[in-house]
Amino acid sequence: MLEITVAIWMLTLSGLSLGLGNLLKQAMRCGGSFEVVDLWLGFTALIGILQVWHLFLPVDGRAGVLVGGIGLVGLCIGSVRNRAVFTFSNMAWVLIGGGLIAAWLGIHTTNQPVNVDSGLYHLNCVRWAKEYAIVPGLGNLHARLALNQSYFLYSALLDVGEFAHRSHQLASGLLCLWALIRSLVSIRAAIRARDRLKANVIYDITMIGPVVYEIVNGMNISSPSPDICVFLLGTTVASELIRVLDATACEEREYKEKALPVILLAVLGVTVKISFAATAATVFAVVLVYGRLHVGRRMVLPLFGMGALWSAFILAPWVGRGIILSGYVAFPLAVLPLPVDWRMPVDMAHRCYGLIRMWALTCGGKIPAEYMGSAKGYWLWLMYVLRTQKPTIIVPVSLAILGLLYRQLYRPARRVVAEWGFDEAYFLVPCVSLIYWFVTAPDQRFAGASFWMLGAGVVALVLATVSKESAVLSLIFVTGMLLSREIGIVDAMGPWRKDNGPARTVVTEERTTDSGLKVYVATVENEGRTWDSPLPSMPFFNPRVELRVPGDVSKGFRIRQK
Predict the structure, then answer these.
(1) Which end of the chain is more exposed for a tag (fewer CB within 10 A), N or C?
(2) Domain-terminating residue out of 310, 344, 378
(3) How would DSSP label each residue in 177-204?
(4) Rounded distance, CA 285 to CA 292, Å?
(5) What would the pLDDT profile of 225-239 be if each residue is shown by its tens digit?
(6) In what order do the strands lie in the sheet with 518-522?
(7) Going by DSSP bridges, is the β-strand pair 508-512/552-559 parallel, antiparallel, or unpaired?
(8) Last residue of a domain, one of 344, 377, 405
């Protein structure tokens, strides 16, 4: 069965990512023991390698052999160094639990993409990445092809062999597996705890409900969408940040070992989706300031230098890719334009950002555009959110409010929290992220995990101050309520309608631009969605697009001057 095949590949790729991440952690001098965060550090290393690889070559099987080989070497080296970790109880807990989770995820991922943006540009981006090295001016074909989201490189890497045109059935599910393995490990830590539960353990267990909701009720588990990646990255960054801020008594070296991976993961989020920028900047600032105040002044400058250096490993090629795709450093923001012949017109960049903002403020067209930005428009927006975003916005905000009220009334908790060291510094991250989100594009999917970073963070802050028994009962109640009220048992067993074939293709119309370039254009019936159609394709026809070098698509596109 395809579901079992997907589950086996998820576990195999998890092992390779664990090895790759452990190698990166050793390179950063952050210790060599296996940890759950190594899975995400492996993903970080993968994106860094693929961004450079794609500057010269398409992301195909050769890239897979390279990173797979490095991951296998890292896994072998780490296994030798961590032989004590491979006890029967440890392996049974992770492999049996992870195997069951992977099998369940395989049921949900082996379906057609349901996110309509997958038809608009997701699948198109994956196809460009696997068939060509990076193409200059690709955004001139369609603006969203220039959004420079590194997630599509990862998806293209998986789009080989038996998963050719099926990488959407593996990409998002693999990342969800890592999130649930983190919660699984935290459940074991909670069982073994003698006194109070650690704050990051509480956070990870609280996030079981939101992650399962995204899998069962979301539209991205079988779609190659960066939205679910940003959500899961946000939850991971939050958990690791709580772990860093919960260690006031640690030495400088230990603090650096915990802080550097958090900084690197936050920076990775920017390359996946630029809306993560506020979160990344705030995480970096909080880690530095908190370290200076609670660990020591001498460690700030070295930590800043190391953080900036390793961030450049991810950000430098990302910036270069953005310039190649659009002619701008941070498209769709028309800032720092470069004098290159493939640069997208300024009005095209402004229109792309304007459409994203309009979609958010009008709730996908539910609110008349004439009210956009007015007091009535924001009121209608609020009413729409209150009616439709219960599990993604209302529930985490409610948890945050109730938790803060409890903390205010239960005075003794303040002394215990001060002793543990996890306090208000953490909440700067979700608060700044949500302010940035509201000002730029207040659509729920652009918020990533910010609302749950706030809600689950308050739960962790409060329950870290009570006894283990009280914390466990509270977690069971919160998780049980969310799972029972927002997720149907039948839906959790699998999707109602299922098509586990390759990504869909649709009939397109072959048209010729003024320069003689032949492109495949979406028909009126498909509303601009070409899905997994041959290249070059366009959702909407632009007769002014031309090749930079006649007859060579790989050299890029530009807009013909009037």
Answers:
(1) C
(2) 344
(3) HHHHHHHHHHHHHHHH-SSSPPHHHHHH
(4) 11
(5) 999 999 999 999 999
(6) 508-512, 518-522, 537-538
(7) unpaired
(8) 344
- Could you tell me if 318 and 49 are in contact, meaning their C-beta atoms sit under 8 angstroms apart? no
462 contacts: CB under 8 Å, gap ≥ 6? 403, 406, 407, 413
Confidence of residue 417 (pLDDT cuts 50, 70, 90): very low
Per residue in 530-543, pLDDT (tens digit) is 999 999 999 999 99
pTM of the model: 0.95
Which amino acid, residue 142?
H
Q: Which of these ranges, 91-95, 291-295, 353-357, has the smallest mean pLDDT?
A: 91-95
Residues 29-53: pLDDT tens digits?
888 788 999 999 999 999 999 999 9
Q: Can you read off the two tokens belonging to residue 505?
A: 């293709």
Please say if the pLDDT value at position 419 is more than 70.
no
Q: Is 238 helix (H, G, I), strand (E, B) or coil?
A: helix
Residue 539 inside a domain? The answer is yes
pLDDT at 221: 94
Residues 6+ apart with CB under 8 A from 548: 136, 137, 341, 342, 555, 556, 557, 558
Q: Assign 344 to helix, strand or coil.
A: coil
Neighbours of 551 (CB within 10 A): 8
- The residues pairing with 557 across neighbouring beta strands, listed in sequence order, are 547
Over residues 128-137, the pLDDT tens digits come to 999 999 999 9
pLDDT, mean of residues 514-529 = 92
**38: nearest Cα among 178, 204, 228, 242:** 178
- With cut-offs at 50, 70 and 90, classify the pLDDT of residue 420: very low
Note whether residue 236 is domain-resident: yes
d(CA 353, CA 350) in angstroms, rounded, equals: 5
Pair 173, 223: CB distance under 8 Å: no
Give me the chain's average pLDDT, please.
Answer: 91
345: exposed, middle or buried (Cβ count in 10 Å: 0-12, 13-18, 19+): middle
In this structure, is residue 126 part of a structural domain? Answer: yes
Task: Show the domain range for 216.
Answer: 2-344
Run of H or E including 522: strand 518-522
Instruction: Give the total number of structural domains in the chain.
Output: 2
368 close to 374: Cβ distance less than 8 angstroms: no
Higher pLDDT, 517 or 248: 517
Q: Look at residues 326, 347, 352 and name the one whose alpha carbon lies nearest to residue 338.
A: 326
Confidence of residue 372 (pLDDT cuts 50, 70, 90): confident
Nearest to 527 by CA among 247, 119, 76: 119
The CA–CA distances, whole Å, from 35 to 28, 32, 179, 255, 531 equal 15, 9, 13, 16, 38
CB atoms within 10 A of CB 457: 27
The verdict on residue 57 lying in a domain is yes
Q: Are 384 and 204 in contact (CB under 8 A)?
A: no
